[in-house]
Amino acid sequence: MNQDTEALPPLNITPELIQQHGLSEEEYQQILKHLGREPNLTELGVFSVMWSEHCSYKSSRVHLKRFPTEGPQVVQGPGENAGAVDIGDGLAAVFKMESHNHPSFIEPFQGAATGVGGILRDIFTMGARPIALLNSLRFGELDSTQNQHLLKGVVSGISWYGNCIGVPTIGGEITFNDIYSKNPLVNVFCLGIVKKDRLLRGLAKGEGNQVLYIGAKTGRDGIHGATMASDSFDDASEKKRPNVQVGDPFLEKLLLEACLEFLEQDLLVGIQDMGAAGLTSSSCEMASRSGTGIELDVAKVPRREPNMTPYEILLSESQERMLLVAQPGKEDAVLAVCRKWGIDAAAVGKVTDDGLLRIRDGSQIVAEIPADAIAEGAPRYERPSAPPQYQELLQALNLDTLPDVKDATDALLQLLNSPTIASKRWVYRQYDYMVGTNTVVCPGSDAAVVRLKGTGKALAMTTDGNSRYCLLNPYMGGGLAVAEAARNLVCSGAEPLAVTDCLNFGNPERPDIMWQFIMAVEGIADACRAFDVPVVSGNVSLYNETNGLSIYPSPIIGMVGLIEREDDITTQWFKQSGDHILLIGETREDIGGTEYLKIIHSREQGMPPYLDVDLEQAVQRCVLILIQKGWVESAHDCSEGGLLVTLAECCFTHPSTTFGATITLNQERLRLDALLFGESPSRIVISVKEDNLQHVTQFIQDLGTKVPMSVLGQVTDRDRMAVTVQRAHEKQVQQLSWSVEDLANRWQNSLVQQLDAAQTS
Amino acid sequence: MNIGIIVFPGSNCDRDCAHVVSEVMGHSAHLIWHQEPAIQDMDAVILPGGFSYGDYLRTGSIARFSPIMEAVFEFVNRGGLVLGICNGFQILLEAGLLPGAMLRNKALSFICEDTYIRIENAETPFTNSCEAGQVIKLPIAHAEGNYYTDPVTLSALQANAQVVFRYCDQDGNATTISNPNGSLDDIAGIRNAKGNVLGLMPHPERCAEAILSNQDGHSIFKSMVSSLMGKSPLSV
Amino acid sequence: MKAKIYITLKDGIHDPQGRAIQQSLQTLGFTTAQDIRVGKFLEVELQDTEKESAESNIKSMCQKLLANTVIEDFRYEIVET
Amino acid sequence: MKAKIYITLKDGIHDPQGRAIQQSLQTLGFTTAQDIRVGKFLEVELQDTEKESAESNIKSMCQKLLANTVIEDFRYEIVET
Ligand SMILES: Nc1ncnc2c1ncn2[C@@H]1O[C@H](COP(=O)(O)OP(=O)(O)O)[C@@H](O)[C@H]1O
Ligand SMILES: [Mg+2]
User: Fold this and answer.
1) Is the CB of A465 under 6 A from ligand 1?
2) Cα separation of A252 and C15, whole Å?
3) Does A689 have pLDDT greater than 70?
4) pLDDT at B186 (0 to 100)
5) Mean pLDDT value across residues A669-688
6) What is the pLDDT of residues A103-148, one digit of tens each?
7) C-alpha distance from residue B199 to each of A437, A747, B126, B140, B145 (Å)
8) CA D39 – CA D4 distance, rounded (Å)
9) What percent of chain A has pLDDT over 90?
């Protein structure tokens, strides 16, 4: 190290200091080896954040290798700010999902808002204009005011940031379970569009090129946020909380437009947003990716607060900041764009060829670390894993002792009232889901669809994941999430293209949690392979645990599909009376892990529904072809709540009207609860016009027996959903019947009522 | 026809308006940066929706001082047509080009959904292809659309047929439920006394094409275009 | 010099935010809280050295930008620092 | 009794709103306006008749609902009316 650093007060690195930085003794030994000397405090801080779980993926990286990441459609796989796939017409869709769980628990509004800000930056640093946001949320049950407060804060934070910057929030999912009471999940997804050959990357190439800092001034916000996100919560965490980061969507909008202008004028070598671990991670990653070094002068960094130390400047997580490397001679043009948009910008350093991250404070060198050591050289662990002892107990569900459903009429009403199944309108009404005038299928159908102006094409996207399935069988749960996401896309008329994921789990240092993680990753990887949808980006969030209680394993899948012709866009609701209702796929005895079992029997137990990958593939292929042939009026997949919930939703989710249905179910062997409320995957309810019925049945027959199909009944214009159940072993047929208006009311009002009830109780 | 669309730094419906003007209506859309000092050869000007300065302080309050606003004043004085949509409406209020002010929605939260709107005055350059009393469906997307003005101004608005749009239900009846934001007198849009400036909270540009499942917004743009026929563009 | 500015909704103008807060306070058991009005409180660091110029600047900032006098009233105090 | 409550962002917490207002004042020519912090000002009518009970009520209202103590500080005054 340079002589100048001698000027710093010598630091006694004590075991306590190491521990406070979240580093283990072995990790500290590795630091000594990388540096060949003792680090100073600033360097220790840099290692601390960069080697945190959040930034280094040290527990997960070896396992993530299992994901398939290649395919002819892949333009950019994992490793950049976001993944990208080819969508034709010279365009690429750029997308990624990210978690903001811990910050949202501490300050729900700002936590969720800055989560949206972060994922947007990941997309527009790639040069893509963001055109859609989605979110996946998990909260505790709404009978607690604390959970209500979290839900309201998170939704308004997402709404504020997305609405203000003008990117529509077009879909997502929410489920409720008390396991999330002290550890809610906030995962946000963003997709943008860029010309395929103009994709920007986070590179710092070309010795001597200037490194520029643009955006918000640096304050003491969120210092050690990344370390915090890599730690479990307990009641003492409140105290060591760093300054909460506050979002500024207006500034982000300016950054967005400026970045797209840089691209337009071709001014940059590379660009990277400052997310977790701020200036440190952005500079290290850019240098490490490019095999270069970076020299920064913290004295030149625009600051909001006086007397900030290099340590603080390097580790600050102030929002709405970017680091970029300008093409030689184009620095002034970059600054001119910044001036136009009123953004602060400063030259803070240069690219070097010595592979070092060198930090100056004026003339003094305050840190000097091989960039590779911090980024690629981060520790990697193959942590021990073992199935939890309770796993068998969880999976045991003796159907012989479980009474079959007694009052199916009431059971359906109760399921529609479950906030996990009920309408999420209260949520998405707060999101501007129309800005951009591309949203052709608004929230409320299986997947959201945006058109791509001027191409005649559209993109469908969805986020899915059933954490209860993952708890009961993480391998199956992972696969089922992929299958459901793909099914939702297919129901909308899209061909699935690629996946992004957000893996939310507990403490990886616990073998049972690590086992859940490994199994889920394997399940996702195998399903992605089977469906031929590569993973192009993603995010891992571990240590989702409060006071020793872990969340359910919660991998969330974000999937994007392409609709080649606007005519193929399909929605889930019935279209006209007289149409025939068909079930593609078959119902099996899948009661374990269902919403029915939870709501009616208060049990979260059993084996989750069994995913037969070949059957799933065959069903999806079949429905997509039927849609492309123009024979399908509506398509809706069966998921939580089972067949009756699906049929009810087909009746009442049309934006401006409702329909009735007359249904007959013939099932020889199944229990009634499994038939009506079981959650067998690989099932899609479609409706077809009278004129097309013959074509459809013929087509499916010609496919052979691979795709089970049954005609269930017809759409009516009456206010009744009537279901006749005929079973050979019962002498009598069962008649079930509901007023569609009643069903709709339950489903529409549930969330609002539960929120109001707690407010006035 | 040349339609200018003012781009404030936080505008986000500017490109949506331009799309309707050019791709749907077949006219020329010109994005005008808010720092420009002048408006050149425009038949009409649109102030689009968005969050012009993050809507910090009050919606539209900071944008009102952008350099282009001087030109907008002059454009209005010379009789040019100006349409303010959502945030554009809020800016026109802050600028005093239309009377009144916006309060937060009565339920406080942001609301994005379709609303029914009754055409109260079909004799304006913005509604001449509609009929008085006609009910159209337009989406709203705002947190501050709760229109307020003092009683004297309100009477004047009513007396001069300046209330152009009111929130109503599907059958055209204005009820408490059909008013989404608590707006005074169910007001969804007003014009100035002279009749050349119109502000409305709903977004006609979001429903002017078949693929968006609603084309009711088309009538507003069509009215503007037909009332501009034969007039010459303005430069200020 | 420093200014403290208080911006409040004019009397007679309905304050939905105040009303919502009042209702929540009621359900939390704070039945004592009656009418609530929500306004803004701004603290501005001024470079002025004379109190008079500070006052006239603040007044004109309020009139021009900080308050909307159609719906809001404002008050201010200048504090020497 | 009446309470006046002042809610301000904690020191060090970023205030983008203040920044935007300050920039706008600059362009309007009010170059004297340096740092601006935006907070809330609440006026609450209380039914309490004792100043002490009023104070304890207001304090607990602020902690529980009116201020977000993660990022905000509060101050209050009780005025007898
Ligand atoms: N957090 C959310 N944000 C926006 N839209 C949501 C959210 N949660 C659910 N939705 C929308 O509500 C509809 C129903 O969601 P869901 O029941 O999860 O559908 P599915 O079971 O088909 O995946 C979908 O259109 C979805 O996009
Ligand atoms: Mg679905």
Assistant:
1) no
2) 31
3) yes
4) 97
5) 95
6) 999 999 999 999 999 999 999 999 999 999 999 999 999 999 899 9
7) 20, 37, 10, 13, 11
8) 13
9) 81
Query: What is the pLDDT, as a whole number, of residue A6?
Result: 41
Domain D2-79 CATH superfamily: Phosphoribosylformylglycinamidine synthase subunit PurS (3.30.1280.10)
Q: Which of A277, A236, A233, A239 is nearest to A507 (CA)?
A: A233
Q: Which of A440-454, A663-677, B62-76 has the lowest mean pLDDT?
A: A663-677
Residues 187..226 of B with a Cβ closer than 8 Å to C: which? none
Whether A729 is catalytic is: no
Tell me if A464 CB under 6 Å of ligand 1: yes
Whole-number Cα distances in Å, C1 to C58, C60, D31? 11, 16, 14
Among candidate residues D18, D13, D12, D32, the one with its CA nearest the CA of residue A307: D12
**Residue C28, CA distances (Å) to C23, C32, D72 in order:** 9, 11, 20
Full pLDDT tens readout for chain D, 81 residues: 999 999 999 988 899 999 999 999 999 999 999 999 999 999 999 998 899 999 999 999 999 899 998 899 999 999 987
Q: Tell me, what's the pLDDT at A11?
A: 66
Task: Give B-chain residues touching C71 at CB under 8 angstroms.
Answer: 101, 103, 148
Tell me the C-alpha distance between A23 and A529, whole Å: 36
Q: How far is CA A348 from CA A291, A294, A305, A327, A609, in A?
A: 20, 10, 18, 15, 55
What value does the CA radius of gyration of chain C take, rounded to a whole number of Å?
16
Rounded distance between C-alpha atoms, residue A472 and residue A552, angstroms: 9
Distance CA A440, CA A449 (A): 6
Break chain D down into helix, strand, coil percent, rounded to 5: 35, 35, 30
Residue A220 CA to ligand 1 centre (angstroms): 37
**Interior CA angle at A312 toward A310 and A318, to 5°?**
125
> What is the tally of structural domains in chain B?
1
Distance of alpha carbon D41 from alpha carbon C8, whole angstroms = 8
Non-local CB neighbours of A321 within 8 Å, separated by 6+ positions: A213, A214, A215, A216, A218, A273, A274, A278, A279
The closest of A447, A699, A437, A434 to A562, measured between CA atoms, is A447
Task: Indicate the range of A304-308, B8-12, B86-90 predicted with least confidence.
Answer: A304-308
pLDDT confidence of residue A760: 43
Residue A228 burial by Cβ neighbours in a 10 Å radius (0-12, 13-18, 19+): buried
| Stretch A468-477: mean pLDDT | 97
Task: Give yes or no for residue A756 having a pLDDT over 60.
Answer: yes
Looking at the DSSP bridge assignments, the partners of residue B141 are: B112
Q: Which of A161, A428, A445 to mutate to test the pocket of ligand 1 (most atoms within 8 A of CB)?
A: A428
Mean pLDDT, rounded, for A720-727: 93
The pTM of this model reads 0.94
Q: Sort out which chain B residues have CB atoms less than 8 A from D27's CB and list them.
A: 65
Q: Which of D15, D23, D71 sits opposite A107 (nearest CB)?
A: D71
Going from N- to C-terminal start, the domains of chain D cover: 2-79
Of the candidates D33, D42, D48, which has its C-beta nearest C44's C-beta? D33
Q: Would residue B203 show up in a list of annotated catalytic residues for this protein?
A: yes
DSSP state of A339: H
Domain-located, residue B52: yes
Looking only at the bridges linking them, the beta strands covering A185-195 and A169-176 are unpaired
What residues make up the domain containing B47?
2-228
Q: Which residues of A touch D12 (CB under 8 A)?
A: 219-221, 243, 305
